[in-house]
Amino acid sequence: MNNEERVIKLEEARLIGKIVNRGWGVMKKNYKERLDMILDIEVANRDCPLKLQELLDADDANFYHDIIGIGQHLNRQTRKLGNCFIPRFAKRMGKTEQEAESVKRFEEEARTLDDIEEKLKGSQRDMLGEMISDAEKLDKAEENKWSYMKEKHFYRIETMLDAYQIIFGYHEHRDITNTDDLDYAGLDVEAAKKRMEDLK
């Protein structure tokens, strides 16, 4: 780092310190200590360069829009601002830079949504597998006249079907149930197996 870069870093640190001093009265309820707020603004400034002096001098509405927004939308694991939040005092980028940044953020958020969707599908497969397994155990209990085990697995299927509807919605629930056949608490075992296969 050359002397000019050191001067810039020191000036940024000075301005960030003043920004935190100004906003601390409002923001302290969101942080354990001032250092946490300083780090948030430093990280946000690296991800999306800020016009720190203009932010410091801004009226309360614009000042707190950016300060509160940074606290709410900064992902401290990725060290990036998320949810498409861009501070009002972000430095303007050239059109090409803006487009590249927009594409980058869109791709990152799309990957996050893909991950969530895949995890949700995994949870759905797991729940379907549990209900199918309980249906098979219920058959075995019926065959061996184990009344307690039959009641246990029937109740488990019934409970999981209720949870399945809450988590995955009415239409998903409707597709794996048959109210005309209550042998498995309304579970249509073959339909559940097919839905489980479709989710792979």
Task: Explain what the structure shows.
- Strand 1 and strand 2 form a beta hairpin.
- The chain has a two-stranded antiparallel ribbon with strand order 1-2.
- The chain folds into two domains: 3-91, no CATH class; 120-198, no CATH class.
- The chain has helices at 3-27, 34-47, 52-57, 60-73, 95-143, 147-168, 170-175, 189-198, and strands at residues 74-75, 80-81.
- With 200 residues, the chain is mainly alpha-helical.
- The two termini are 52 Å apart.
- Helix content is 73%, strand content 2%.
In short:
This protein has 200 residues and is mainly alpha-helical.
Estimate what percentage of residues fall within beta strands.
under 5%
Shape: elongated
What distance separates the N and C termini? 52 Å
Number of domains: 2
Oligomer classification: single chain
Unreliably modeled segments: none
- Specify the helix fraction band: over 70%
Overall average residue pLDDT: 85
Q: Strand tally, please?
A: 2
Helix count, per DSSP?
8
Radius of gyration: 27 Å
Order of H and E elements: HHHHEEHHHH
Task: Report the sheet with the most strands, covering strand number, pairing sense and barrel closure.
Answer: 2 strands, antiparallel
The strand order across the widest sheet is 1-2
Structural class given helices, strands, pairing?
A: mainly alpha
